Queue: 2 jobs
Job 1
Amino acid sequence: MRRFILSLVAQSLVVLPLVVLLISASARAQTDASDSGASGTCIIKPHVLVQLNSAVGGVLSATLVDRGDVVRQGQVVAQIESSVEQATLALDQLRAANDGAIKVEQVDRELTVREAARKQSLVAKGIENQNALDELETKVQEGDLRIQQARMDKQIASLTAERSDRALALKQIRSPIDGVVIERKLSAGEYIYEQTSVMTIAQLDPLNVEVVLPLRRYGEISVGSTATVHPEAPVGGAYLAKADVIDPVIDAASETFGVRLLLPNPHRVIPAGIRCSVDWQPTAQATR
């Protein structure tokens, strides 16, 4: 029995170093995978993802773009039925351009001024009394006030036309970014509510590269650090990117932190939503 126990102990002493070596190799492999941005730690995402809504409700009269179309910032991508707003704007613009009321008041004032001049000459000769002259001078002052009121009315009409123009502009849904339509949710003839998303637009230049690194590398990476991003097959290739954001809060459970890199993509050759790996440039080569 004693010999049997000694044999088991001896076998354990032989196997134990092998187990330690296997565990150590596994830990190193996981560390290397984390540092290289292996699957699950490096993902390429759109820089901005917009769920495009409308500030007002109504029936869509047209959707001008479809899935896969490239759009520019400020481009009209959909329109809400706006015939009433168009007619209101035309009427308000006509009123704002009409200065007839001002001209009428100016003509009346000029006539009153001439009458007052003649009346003053007669008063000086003693033919007319002063009361008649005072009445005409009062009418001149009233004419000045009427002209001022007419000008104010014209200014109000201009502001009303501007308000109608902005109300009409709300019926046009514009893209807030340069990007690509990745989903169109509504078509012409459907009703859009204020909380309804018309389409989804993704900005693909630049791209965000989200990387998760182990805690021990915190401090080695700084904003402006340069890295080479390798998208997974079949895209492949090697692209330079710069660190833009370093998370200031560490994930205590996994002892990791996140880094966001900006990857230029002017020709949109790199798709978003794929995994990648990252090779960090030496600190001395990091560009700040």
Note: The radius of gyration is 39 Å.
Job 2
Amino acid sequence: MSTITYADREIAANALQLHYQEWGDPSAPPILMLHGFGVSGHMFDEFAERMQHRFRLIALDQRGHGDSEWANDGDYTRAAFVADVEEFRKALGLDQFILVGHSMGGLNAVAYTIEHPHQVRALILVDVGPEAAKEGVDNILRFTRGPDELDFDEFVEMAHRFNARRSIENIRERMRHRLKQLDNGKWTWKFDSRFRKQDSGLRIGSELSNDEVWAQYRAITAPSLLVRGAESDVLTQEVAERCIREMQRARLVVVPEAGHSVPGDSPDAFTEVVREFIDDVDHGEFEPLVSADPPPLAALVTAQTRATRRRARATTLALVGAGAIIAIVGVALFTKRPKTAKAAPAPASTRDGRHIPAIDPHAAAAVLESLSALAARNAARAQALVEGLGIDPREVVHQAQQRLPHAIPRQRNRLGTVARIGWKTAAFVPKLAVRRGKPRTKDAAQRLEWKR
């Protein structure tokens, strides 16, 4: 894909000069992007190039990173990053926007969304959760705390060893934005050098416990997309899935052949999942691909409603079977083999003259034996289900009788009469079971879902 020129800009926020890159039409819907630790807004270059025809894309170099100023007072707390984003938003006159955050920027995005929920139209978190795998974090620290001064090509080779998924050419372009040249001709990192020193006195991150960060994720109400690199050593699949279970309106997508830096490792796939998510949000069709756990009260109501429906369905099946058993027993009672051989009776006919074939009593008896065995196996279960629901079988019989003709002519086929009794009873029972299992408040579970 050919590179299209972006604009480099600066703005003052909280006594710091913050640098940012901007793509697209300034009147288009805005997307604000927050990078991870040690990099800059240029980590979103490939994504921004692919989306600039539709959105206004703004990649902020957060304090102490990229071409933004370092914090002289050493304040790199999450609260400071969040305050910068809010001042930045006001300075650019942004109202609502889609917020994208990777790694450290993702945690900053979560905290910002909690403090300013009305500004965030949708949230996209890239390979970041309330917990990070120690192995992945250690790998990042070893990489960023390596040699402080090297030739440019040495940094490129070191970065390629760290992430061999990318080509040398791609890494060379990325490192051009992450490094600056010194007076001695060597190159060094752009981000605050105090991050690379032990006991630097910097105030970094947040003092929140893991449980408190989990609570932040659960409190997010904006439609949220969590994108994980399938080969990430920072965000585990287990933590990612738990995030989606516990967040209110969240979707998880795992991008294959991508590590922690998903937007650069697999830019086409990353762009596609983000585009699909935004389209769903725009059309009001967003639904989590992995359902989140509802609040306790809603969970209880939902579970009760589902249990009621399951009981109603079970009762329906059991009592339909009971109706069939009535028919079978009736056949057994009324069907008798002839004592002596008689001539075959003339074929019966209905009132409209249609032919009714004669029933072979021997064949009927064989069928009845099989059906009776099946009925015996299920009778006990059917009775237990009926008793468990508290439905009086006498009420079922009474209601069924009310729906049958009061007089049944003797001349009608006895097998057909008894079968009608069974089938009509079976047809009535589902309605009775549904009435008995119906919640008193109509659609109570749905109303709780909408309130959330």
Note: Residues 7-293 form a domain with the Rossmann fold fold (CATH 3.40.50.1820).
